[in-house]
Amino acid sequence: MLRIIGILCLMGGSIGFGWTLRGRMKERLSALYQWEQIFKMLQNEITYSKASLPEACRRIAARSKEPYRKALEGVYEEMAMNNGCSFSEIWKRHMEECLKETVLSKADKKVCMDFGDCVGYMDGEMQSKAFAQYLHRLGLEVKRLEEEIANKSKVIMSLSIMGGLLAVIILL
């Protein structure tokens, strides 16, 4: 009886491990979707509404989810104080705090952090091109991750089940 309970626990643990790995990949994809949405909203606010970067951040913060809402509000508040820091410095500081809590990879975080360096122009056309560049980069990463999830999720689940079965056979 104890062996059967042990087998069930071991199999449940190995399946849970595979499920967790697959879930983390989906969480990362969801976070990338949110960033893509934030960049599109920023682009629309600046291009069509002719809003300044701080004002665009404030408007988008109202429509964003946590932890991005807090970071965008922080960018707006600090830019409104006009303490002499550049948009790039303020963006990096707030996004660094915000991105600590996410499941994004280091490369994804770097793309989000570097965004402030390319957008602080006064020229609307240059800002629009920078947004297009970042949306393209993010779109490529989203596509790559979607394909990776489609390919790897079945493999992860199969390997976790097979690993559990192998452990059960070895322990019997």
General description of the model:
The chain has 6 helices and no strands. With 172 residues, the chain is mainly alpha-helical.
Task: Provide a brief overview of the structure.
The protein is mainly α. It contains six helices and no strands. Helices cover 84% and strands 0% of the residues.
Largest sheet: none
Given as residue ranges, the uncertain stretches (5+ residues, pLDDT < 50) are none
How many helices? The count is 6
> Average pLDDT, to the nearest integer?
84
Radius of gyration: 22 Å
Number of strands: 0
Q: Give the DSSP E fraction (strand runs of 2 or more residues).
A: under 5%
Category by helix and strand content: mainly alpha
- Tell the overall outline: elongated
Helicity, as a percent range: over 70%
* String of helices and strands: HHHHHH
From the N-terminal CA to the C-terminal CA, the straight-line distance is 13 Å
Core attributes:
172 residues; mainly alpha; elongated
Blueprint of the fold:
Layout: H1 2-47, H2 53-61, H3 68-81, H4 87-99, H5 106-119, H6 124-171
Helix pairs in contact: 1-2, 1-6, 2-3, 3-4, 4-5, 5-6
